[in-house]
Design goal:
It is a single chain. This protein is an alpha+beta fold. The strands form 2 sheets. The chain has a 4-stranded antiparallel sheet with strand order 1-6-4-3, with no helix packed on it. It has a two-stranded antiparallel ribbon with strand order 2-5. Helix 2 runs antiparallel to helix 3. It is built from 5 helices and 6 strands, in the order ββββββααααα.
């Protein structure tokens, strides 16, 4: 059987073996396989046409305890869940505003990956402040009894602002992840409800 190939221009960076969707000059939708070791954005490449994948409907492709059929994606979920979730949102065209809007794909990916980074930085700052206060208390105890000292009010205000931002970001991520899972359910006609979407 002769395999059909197409000359394409990569709209983004793709790893080798990735299945991507493309349009023929006649306007027909085809699926091609990216050659190894992958292609960079704006690079011309020859892709091998493959059969159209059959989407899984009315059920999730993998169960809760399954690692999944894509090993690299499984590692991404384990190492950086936000990036994996942003990838899912990109595939279905779901935006950071909570609805389908493919034009906001790039901004959505940046926000969904960047928000957890802000939370991590906030946690490290919090740990640093706690350790600094403990070290100061230990040195004060060694020097003898003294009056308790508190951080300046300005620092307290800035710290409360950071804590509020971190709390709002946490709730935003929970809500947007829930809405994304609901959008995937509706797209593939999978049974479920808001409670199961929230537990994801």
């Amino acid at each position: 059987m002769i395999k059909r190939t197409w000359q394409l221009l990569a709209p983004a960076n793709y790893p080798g073996g990735r299945r991507i969707e493309a349009l023929t000059p006649e306007g027909n939708t085809i699926f091609v396989k990216v050659p190894e070791p992958g292609v960079a954005r704006g690079t011309a490449f020859v892709g091998e046409e493959i059969p159209k994948p059959q989407p899984v409907t009315e059920r999730w492709h993998d169960a809760i305890c399954n690692c999944g059929s894509e090993g690299t994606f499984c590692c991404l979920v384990f190492l950086w869940p936000a990036a994996a979730w942003a990838s899912i949102m990109d595939k279905i065209g779901f935006s950071f505003l909570g609805h389908i809007n493919p034009s906001l794909r790039q901004a959505t990916f940046v926000i969904m990956v960047g928000a957890p980074i802000i939370l991590i930085i906030h946690q490290f700052q919090k740990m640093h402040q706690v350790l600094a206060l403990q070290a100061k208390a230990a040195s004060s105890s060694a020097a003898g009894p003294s009056k308790p000292q508190f951080p300046p009010e300005a620092d307290d205000g800035a710290w409360m602002d950071l804590t509020l931002v971190a709390a709002l970001l946490s709730w935003y991520l929970i809500i947007i992840f829930t809405l994304t899972r609901r959008a995937v359910r509706k797209m593939y006609k999978i049974r479920g409800n808001c409670c199961t979407d929230c537990l994801w």
